[in-house]
Request: fold
Amino acid sequence: MQAVILAAGQSSRLFPFGGTMQKATISLMGKSLVVQTIDSLRRSGVSRITVVISPDNGVKESIEALGEEYRDIRFVSHVGARGMGEALLDTSSEIKEDFLLLHAHHFECDTFIPELVSAKKKLSAQGVLLLRKESSLESYGIVSLTDDQVTSVAEKPKGVSDALRIVGIYLLSPGFLDVLISAEKHHYSFETALDEFAKKERVVGVRTEESVVTLKYPWHILDIGDFLLSRLSGSVSRNAKIAESAVIEGSVFVSEHVTIENGVVIKGPCFIGEGVYIGTNALLRGGVIVEKGAVIGANMEVKHSIIMEGSSTHSGYIGDSVIGKNCKIAALFCSGNVRIDRANVHAVVKDEKTDSKRRSLGVFVGDGTKIGIRVSTMPGVLIGKNVIVGPSTTVFKNVPSDTKYFSKITEVIQEHTDGTIEKSEQREKKVVLFDIDYTLFDTKQFRESDLTKFAVYDEVVEVLGGVSKSKVTKDCYRIAFFYGSCAYSAEER
Reply:
């Protein structure tokens, strides 16, 4: 049997973890999701696997980096994110027999494949769909059944409360491709063709009550983590360095070269990747995954969260959150994860307020983001990649990638005698900014401000004079002074 894995989508609803890198490349417990799906297919006896990718989305590289074991995987490039149907048609020359079709995050597929194969053979079907009962159906494709036979397929219906949703694992005959080729081309041409195929041929549904994996929104990464942790067997590497006073309870997997300091408490299930450092008095509980090379600082509590590869934290609290790769989080960080009224947490996804359907939801931080000291985040906030969050900042809303987000800080100094305030003075903190691109400020403002009398002006001139004699000359300095909300600048002294 052969399989086609779809890994070419844009994952736009998965911000801050989608974008140019496909969600299939997300690594949990040391392996990317697409590789875990390949392993699951192989456990089911699938020998020919084709992965549909888009150019430069990282999927091919994440598989090939694992070496000879995955050299037999075939790759087909799909350009333009034109929908599931067009992506499948790009592989038509590869398909010679009945084939499994699934998304790259279905690493649990080996649980269901035997039943799909059995149903196809037993019922002489041309297609088998895995189905599951859901309370909310507006985000899924659904089917109508007569007995076990599929009579219609609809994508993301509105106002439907009693139907079965399509999980996203299909077993189809090559004849389906003929219907797909003739179907009208649009983003949901696959669902249109499947509906037509079910009306022409025998297509059956297999229902399951088992947990299935969904990966549409960033909080679904937490669900996937829970699923993986539910299968985890506890083990501690002989190469791990664990302090005598550390406490490890339940199912905890400790990889090689891990260091766990005094006073640490780890309550399983928990996965700790290779080379992780966990500082003094840290607490990990409620289902935690810490990926390779990450650092959990002293006095940090991590509850039901995922810390991805290479990220580091100091003290604070991280709850019901996902921290991306190579992030740096300074001391006294706190992620709010529950609303005061204990209602469901909502997040803004693609400019739409979306109900997460959960009461506990923290922050989602993209790769390479740096967070300053004493930062807090509101429940359900999404922070993009390569963001800098300034110190003593509360993040109330989503932050786009490649930006800075910070609070302005004002000092208030009041004189008082015997508890009575005599005089009040407000001072803005003084900051110096070098205007490199010559565009920020109006030089006339500076000339009228008489700021040259301040000692800081001479300090800046001295600094600039030593930067580069070839690029910065004494008669052409561009200097900007911030006094609170007022900005002043000069081209020359």
The chain has three domains: 2-207, 220-405, 411-490.
